[in-house]
Design brief:
This protein is of the alpha+beta class. 28% of the residues lie in helices and 34% in strands. The chain is built from 3 helices and 6 strands, in the order αβββαβαββ. It has a 6-stranded mixed β-sheet. A hairpin with a 6-residue loop joins β5 and β6. The termini are far apart. The relative contact order is 0.12.
C-alpha cells in the first residue's frame, strides 16, 4: 500500500471522520463497548441564543467535562455549580462512577476543587508561564 502524509491547519470534518471512525472501531473491538453519549447543558437568552453552558460526554463509566463557560454578567449566581451538579447527576444515572476535566491556571482550578475535584496531573508552561491541570472526582449515587 502506498500512502502520503499531508499536513494542514484547516479542520475538515471528512478528515476527522477518517481518523475517528477507525479509532472508534478499534476501541470497540478491544472493549466490546460503544457507550459514548454527549451531555450538553446550554444557557440561553430569551431568544434562544446560546450564551454559555457545559459541554461534556459520558463514556466508559466516566463523565468528561470538556467545556464550561458562564458569561461574566451571569457569574456569582451559582450557575456554574448548578451546571456541574446537573451533569454529575445525569452521569450517575448513566452509570458513571467518576468525572474528569482539565483547566488552565488562569481559569477555575479552585472552583473545581471546591466541588470535590482533585488534581491528578499538570502540564507546566502550557502556556509558557502558566499551567494546565487535570482533575478528577468520584461520583456517588444519591441513595
Amino acid at each position: 500500500m502506498s500512502f502520503a502524509i499531508r499536513a494542514t491547519d484547516i479542520p475538515d470534518e471528512a478528515t476527522r471522520k477518517g481518523i475517528l471512525d477507525p479509532l472508534i472501531a478499534y476501541n470497540e473491538a478491544r472493549t466490546k463497548r460503544n457507550d459514548y453519549r454527549p451531555l450538553i447543558l446550554a444557557i440561553e437568552d430569551d431568544q434562544g441564543q446560546v450564551l454559555g453552558g457545559l459541554w461534556s460526554r459520558t463514556v466508559y463509566d466516566w463523565l468528561f467535562i470538556e467545556l464550561l463557560f458562564v458569561p461574566e454578567s451571569l457569574r456569582r449566581r451559582g450557575i456554574a455549580t448548578d451546571l456541574m451538579r446537573r451533569a454529575e447527576s445525569e452521569a450517575v444515572v448513566r452509570g458513571c462512577h467518576s468525572a474528569w476535566l482539565d483547566t488552565f491556571e488562569f481559569q477555575a482550578r479552585g472552583f473545581y476543587e471546591r466541588l470535590g475535584y482533585v488534581c491528578f496531573g499538570e502540564l507546566r508552561d502550557y502556556p509558557i508561564g502558566s499551567a494546565r491541570y487535570f482533575l478528577k472526582k468520584a461520583l456517588v449515587s444519591p441513595s
